[in-house]
Amino acid sequence: MLVVVVVVLVLAARPAPTKGVSDQRAFALATQLKCLQCVGESVGASQAPLAVKFRQEIDRQLRQGRTDDEILNYFAQRYGRQVLETPPSTGVGALVWVVPVVAAAGAVLVLAATFRRWRREQQGVAPSEEDEALVARALADRRDGDGAAS
Amino acid sequence: MRRAPWIAGIVGVAVLALVVLFATAPTGREADTSGSVVGRLAPALEGTTAAGAPVDLDKYRGKWVLLNFFATWCPPCVAEHPELVKLSQVPGTPVQVVSVAFDDPADKVTTFFAEQGGDWPVLVDGTETSTLDYAVVKLPESYLINPEGKVSQKLVGGITAGEVLEIVGAEQ
User: In terms of CA atoms, which chain A residue is nearest residue B132?
Assistant: First the structure.
């Protein structure tokens, strides 16, 4: 059963084809484009008239043998890069990628500094002579008590 | 105490990034020009009317053209239509109206114009990619094309005849 589940998951997780004409490739491309007449939907998931036009154009260009990049660029050239679901990795859009990395790196540094400080503080803590004497007295009292009982 | 500068730094970077994002985010009509045809030569547009007559946008070079994308099933387009009729009927109007029907069968377009008036070229066929070439998003949308064939303005939503004539007057 586990093997079947693993096989199904592996097959389901296969990347969409990047060559040829297929519904799977067309859908994969459509999900990389925003539906500009909707809120929070991709072209692949929308029935808005413009999304339907986008899908028709994707199909047409797939039949012409265009690559994925060429098709996505076709839409980006006309509607601007904001039509792409994936933010660009250059210009201001790069902040979307950079800020989380910087924030995560900052958090790791803060954690590392905090752990180091805790370790240093722990190493600096040693029992005083009074504490040691108190423990010795308590141990001696217990030994005496045990001896008296036996 | 030593954590404070780190946290302040991280928060500072995050706030700065948000400020930059908000400051540079497109707003209002500016958004219409990003990646659009405004300021560029109007994309070629050839098609046929409901009557089967061929129309080539290039034929109108030397005139102002209001290229209007509409649909008979779109209420704002229906509301805008009288203004297009008015614009086309202004004596000596400097603007030629050309319409492109978006996903509308020829018979519906013919009936619509018969009922609502208007006598200008309306393309119903052969314009499959024109919606995308002009980066149309929501109907109605109009593109004001100057006599040199460049897209001067993108007008989103219903236009008025006065607004169009004012723009043309200012740019002439």
Answer: A78
- Topology of domain B35-171 in CATH is Glutaredoxin (3.40.30)
CATH superfamily name and code, A14-86 = Cytochrome C biogenesis protein (1.10.8.640)
CA-CA-CA-CA torsion sign (A78, B34, A47, B133):
negative
Task: For residue B150, give the DSSP letter.
Answer: B
Quick: pLDDT tens for A86-138: 866 666 666 777 788 888 888 999 999 999 888 888 776 777 888 889 999 99
Chain B residues near residue A37 by CB distance under 8 angstroms: 137-138
Q: How far is B82 from chain A (nearest CA, A)?
A: 24
Q: Which of A28, A49, A13, A100 is nearest to B74 (CA)?
A: A49
Residue found by looking up tokens 């029992």 in the block:
A127
Q: Contact B138/A82, CB-based, under 8 Å?
A: no
**Residue range(s) in chain A whose domain bears CATH number 1.10.8.640:** 14-86
Asked if residues A120 and B23 have their Cβ atoms less than 8 Å apart, the reply is no
Task: Give me the interface pTM, i.e. the ipTM.
Answer: 0.71
Reply yes or no: is the peptide bond before residue B140 cis, omega within 30 of 0.
yes
Domain residue limits, chain B? 1-32, 35-171
8 Å CB contact between B135 and A78: yes
Write the pLDDT tens digit of every residue in B82-93.
Answer: 999 999 999 999
User: Given CB atoms, is B1 within the 8 Å cutoff of chain A?
Assistant: no
